[in-house]
Amino acid sequence: MSIKTALRATSAIALCAFATTAIAQDTTITIATVNNGDMIRMQGYADIFTEQTGINVEWVTLEENVLRQRVTTDITTNGGQFDIMTIGMYETPIWGANDWLVPLDDLSEEYDVDDILPAMRNGLSHDGTLYAAPFYGESSMVMYRTDLMEAAGLEMPEAPTWQFIREAAAAMDDPENDINGVCLRGKAGWGEGGAFITVTGNSFGARWFDEEWNAQFDQPEWAEAVNFYVNLMNDYGPEGYATNGFNENLSLFQQGKCGMWIDATVAASFVTNPEDSTVADSVGFALAPNAEGVEKRSNWLWAWALAIPAGTQQEDAAKQFIEWATSKDYIELVAENEGWANVPPGARTSLYETPEYQEVPFAQMTLDSINAADPTNPTVDPVPYVGIQFVAIPEFAGMATEVSQEFSAAYAGQQTVEEALAKAQAITNETMEAAGYR
Amino acid sequence: MARDVTSRRKLINTAAAWAVGLVIFFPILWTFLTSFKSEAQAIAAPPLFLNFDWTLENYGVVMERSNYARFLWNSILIAGGSTILGLLVAVPAAWSMAFVPSRRTKDILLWMLSTKMLPAVGVLYPIYLLFIQLGLLDSRAGLIIVMMLINLPIIVWMLYTYFREIPVDILEAARMDGASLKSEILYVLTPMAIPGIASTMLLNFILAWNEAFWTLNLTSVDAAPLTAFIASYSSPEGLFFAKLSAASTMAIAPILILGWFSQKQLVRGLTFGAVK
């Protein structure tokens, strides 16, 4: 008896003993997603989609890193567990290039694919073909306390510099009242602190690679950027900032413990929501800063998008769902039931032309930040890669996680900035050599 | 005087045991308390211990959003199924190694244990591909087999230790009375090893219940157990600790209750043979 037959026999016995029969449905699609507010809201409205189309929807909600690992395993092995996957701007072009995703080049006319914000459409395409439809998009911007800023006698410019951010942080920092001048990400992880320090680097004129794929962490721009960040945070940041990510800073800001917070534009709806935020009525917004004289700002570009893995058996039903969930009608459905401030932002041009949405305090700044981000031209000096807070190559996630761990160790005072940069340089060059880029 | 010293020492020992117990239990207690807080209270600094507005809202949200019963049922079937299947394989294996050892028995035991030293992710792709070929992805049967296999070395080792404590003479006497191999294992060995088998079962059940690598990577909808239920409440962008704590409390409650009721057997089984 072969191993295969033996396994089959064992599984058959186990199946007989334990399995309960699933009720067959006509058409059911399985969607893998993350637990973000907008995604959860979409799950609530999925019944309407089922009513309209007769297509049932099953959800697999997972933590972001688990989701990434889970869908990567499934897509690379053609496992066919999911009909739709929630992925980001990093994965989409890479997976599209590998033919792992179904091209979204035949979306209906009513869907109006040209309405998708150009920055989003470019970031989710490979060779001009769209591979994922943005459910919501984001950039990053400065969120600041208008009351503290006023008390400090300062006025936030629409496009501040890092030098102004430092000046304002010094003015608003008030340890006695438990207010930190500025809260920024320091947590290890390529999508957490790694993303933040990468865009900070961009805004100081730094870059990950030169055009020959040589690591650039030994260049003065990186030293300037990381030293600026560490000094700013040591002087005016919260204690233990080396382990703070999006959620930790969100809670600090909501509790009134940050004068400024530079992070994802999607946070604007959280910090202005009076149910969760103690400072909801005194938040202002500005573009992400740059170093004086540097043309690139420190704003990133990201989208949570819906894509169809190439191995799916339910391609048509999956496309129908994607068209529904990322349509103008869906935005109106959410606006009708939960107000315009709660619609998924950053995906469609028409949303920003809607008069009701223009009244939402963070709408214009979100759009301006998204429009100011160009993934194909992210740095001052030319680079061989696409992506602003990431480098769209498969090796990046592992390499950048290691690099960000070195930076976080420097933030925590376990090593100097110079040591961290030297290690980052070595890690990056070794990885690129092993992968055959150099 | 001697009695005084003994009772004082007892008091100190008891206090120390309670202190260690509380430290170990604290994360569970904190999870439990957090599950009754609002999201804002859950991340309040300084942390709120008991003085907050207790709310059941998180449990309401979790029950509304997730099909808890389905996850629970899958956990019970996977943990239970793998435990039974594991014992069916491990009892004969441990018997042969304990009572009919060969020159290589020790090596086999060590080799079995060495499989536990391999990081699970190292074999993720081969197992995933095998599961695709056999049509076992997202099936309880597949997970039962995997859970059984990953816990098998531990079960065999535990049973082997218990069986070694049983005098061979008793088995020989049974054999002389004409007992077959089957009767020897079923009617002589098993009744004597019941405490050991029971604690092995319980430990294996707990290990399978808590396993969160294979259960997350090999399931999606139909076979997803409570570990997947917990994983669905973590959020990259948004506060989630209170709801995550509610989901965690609901996921660990059944196993905590089981552990509570069977603690006598567990402690007895785990310390069996420790002191001679």
UniProtKB/TrEMBL annotation, chain A:
Presence of keyword Signal: yes
The UniProt entry, under SUPFAM superfamilies, shows: Periplasmic binding protein-like II
What GO cellular component entries does it have?
periplasmic space
Principal localisation: periplasm
Question: How far does the signal peptide extend, from start to end residue?
Answer: 1-24
Q: Which family does it belong to?
A: Belongs to the bacterial solute-binding protein 1 family.
Instruction: Return the protein name.
Output: Erythritol/L-threitol-binding protein
Native organism is Roseinatronobacter ekhonensis
From TrEMBL, chain B:
Q: Cite the ABC transmembrane type-1 domain residue spans from the record.
A: 72-262
Family note = Belongs to the binding-protein-dependent transport system permease family.
One GO CC term of this entry? plasma membrane
Query: Which InterPro entries has this protein been placed in?
Result: BP-dep_ABC_trans_perm (IPR050901), MetI-like (IPR000515), MetI-like_sf (IPR035906)
Q: In its UniProt entry, what is this protein called?
A: Trehalose transport system permease protein SugB
Compartments, record wording: Cell membrane
PANTHER family attached here?
A: INNER MEMBRANE ABC TRANSPORTER PERMEASE PROTEIN YCJP (PTHR32243:SF18), MALTOSE TRANSPORT SYSTEM PERMEASE-RELATED (PTHR32243)
Query: Where are its TM segments located?
Result: 12-33, 71-96, 108-131, 143-163, 184-209, 240-261
